[in-house]
Write a structure and sequence with these properties.
The protein is an alpha+beta fold. It is built from eight helices and twelve strands. It folds into two domains: about 180 residues, Winged helix-like DNA-binding domain superfamily/Winged helix DNA-binding domain (Arc Repressor Mutant, subunit A, Orthogonal Bundle); about 120 residues, Arc Repressor Mutant, subunit A. Helix 1 crosses helix 4.
Length: about 325
């Protein structure tokens, strides 16, 4: 009797395509410089310290692979979105190891599914697994957490045909713990994947974290945006790139305008378009209410004046009296 062939189409965990998932990202990584913003290999470390000294981030690369890029981070967005979908579906034992296919993953993050796409996916997974991050975020006071984005990744093959049947990705504990906490993720706009520039992507993530849905928006100094983005461009070059992005104003969800702070520092104001529209509607309604109130006051005043004049106008003059 011939032994049955092992099943090759059933995985321990099925991850839906991204188009079926609300897009999620880990908020702790959105406002700090955790990724290279360039596609060419970066070996220069990223070092960031918040103004109050409470938050530290240091990112180091392995020369053979280079630092994980902000485009590589799309894989982590996919993982966060998948885990949050499983949680929403009522699954309690959320796994750190996710199974999918390379094809489905590439489609989910809107990448080329040809030969070049698979080569780039492998390189991205290698960078995520070898880039080392040190940060004070969620670390014991006075100490830094040390981790890579992925603990491991591997391809599962059919034992008979030796063809790949699944891609297994194991998230690091730091990433996993940040994702499964519902308050630690934010919804992202699906057009984020269409942003081709590294700085545009960083600015959207910063805006999503800080500006959020605030009716008045959020303002940030250009110098601080330089630090938060992790750009290795000189300040003058960074300002030039930023100016072009603000002029184009085509980030998903947010409008960008230049402004100045109280000390005359150059800054950028971010506001969610929906929030700006609501604020405009409210302003229009308030203006209409003010006009109506003014008209009512004017009508009442006119009536009062008419009332005072009426006795004089209606008074009869008696004959023979002057």
């Amino acid at each position: 009797m011939t032994a049955p062939k092992p099943r090759t189409t059933q995985f321990d965990l099925f991850i839906p395509l991204m188009r079926d998932l609300p897009l999620k990202d880990q908020r702790e990584t959105m406002e700090r410089p955790f990724f290279s913003l360039q596609k060419r290999k970066r070996l220069k470390p990223i070092e960031y310290h918040s103004a109050d000294g409470e938050v530290r981030v240091k990112v180091e690369a392995v020369p053979a692979y280079g630092m994980a890029t902000i485009w590589d981070g799309d894989i982590l967005i996919w993982a966060a979105s998948a885990l949050n979908r499983l949680k929403a579906d009522g699954r309690n034992d959320l796994p750190r190891e996710l199974k999918t296919t390379a094809y489905d993953l590439l489609r989910s993050i809107q990448r080329d599914t040809g030969g070049k796409g698979y080569v780039e996916l492998k390189a991205a997974l290698d960078r995520l697994a070898t880039t080392t991050i040190f940060t004070s975020i969620r670390a014991k006071r006075g100490r830094d957490s040390r981790f890579s984005w992925l603990d491991s990744w591997s391809v599962e093959v059919d034992p008979i045909t030796d063809k790949p049947i699944a891609l297994k990705i194991t998230l690091s504990n730091w990433v996993y713990e940040g994702v499964i906490n519902e308050k630690s993720v934010l919804t992202m706009h699906p057009d984020y994947f269409q942003l081709s520039g590294g700085l545009e992507r960083a600015l959207y993530r910063i805006a999503r974290k800080h500006a959020g849905d605030q009716e008045q928006g959020w303002t940030c100094r250009v110098s601080l945006l330089h630090e938060k983005s992790g750009s290795d461009s000189a300040p003058k070059e960074f300002a030039r790139m930023l100016r072009k992005i603000v002029e184009n104003n085509d980030l998903p969800e947010y409008d960008l305008t230049f402004t100045t702070t109280g000390d005359n520092s150059s800054a950028v104001h971010f506001i969610r378009r929906a929030a700006a529209e609501r604020a405009q509607i409210r302003a229009d309604l308030e203006a209409d209410a003010t006009k109506r109130a003014r008209r009512i006051r004017e009508d009442l005043r006119a009536a009062e004046i008419d009332g005072q004049s009426e006795p004089f106008l209606n008074r009869r003059v008696m004959p023979g009296r002057h």
